[in-house]
Every structure is written in structure tokens, then in C-alpha cells.
Write a structure and sequence with these properties.
Mean pLDDT: 89
Strand content: under 5%
Radius of gyration: 12 Å
Number of domains: 1
CATH class: Mainly Alpha
Shape: globular
Distance between the termini: 14 Å
Low-confidence stretches: none
Length: about 90
């Protein structure tokens, strides 16, 4: 399990990069406890973030549902869980 923290950091960095690009927000505002609402991500933006996450991590999920109260950490945890199942 020693590599899990490193992998989570790697996933967080990618998620953050996607959110910054898609939501057009400042890097400093993308923290683990920031919600989609905090990041001013409307439904279309959340959908495009979900699409990019699906592509980036090859989740194979047609619709990654990001609610207004979904946090960045929730997304990282979800992706880690998905990646864990696919190993």
C-alpha cells in the first residue's frame, strides 16, 4: 500500500489540471475540499470535466455524474476506487 499515496497525488494532479482547464479557474482554488459549486462549475462544465476524466483515466463510464456538492477529493477517491478495481 506504500504506493497508494503517490498514486493518489498523481490522480489529484491530473484531476486538478483538468478542472483548471475546463472550469477556467485559478490553480489555488482547486483544493481537495473545493466543491464543483466553489469552482463555479455549471452543469455543462461539470459534464465536460466528467468527459475529460473518463478519457484521461479510461474509466469506461459513459456519464461521470458530478453534482454541485461533489468535492475534488470525492473525484480523486472515485477514480482511485475505479483504478483499484481494474488492476
Amino acid at each position: 500500500m506504500a504506493g497508494t499515496k503517490g498514486k493518489a497525488d498523481e490522480v489529484f494532479a491530473k484531476v486538478k489540471e483538468i478542472i483548471i482547464r475546463e472550469a477556467r479557474v485559478d490553480e489555488a482554488s482547486v483544493t481537495p475540499d473545493a466543491t464543483m459549486n466553489d469552482l463555479y462549475a455549471d452543469s455543462a462544465t461539470r459534464m465536460s470535466i466528467g468527459d475529460e476524466l473518463d478519457r484521461e483515466f479510461e474509466l469506461g463510464i459513459l456519464d461521470v455524474d458530478l453534482a454541485e456538492d461533489t468535492t475534488v477529493q470525492d473525484i480523486v477517491d472515485f477514480i482511485m476506487e475505479q483504478l483499484g478495481e481494474s488492476e
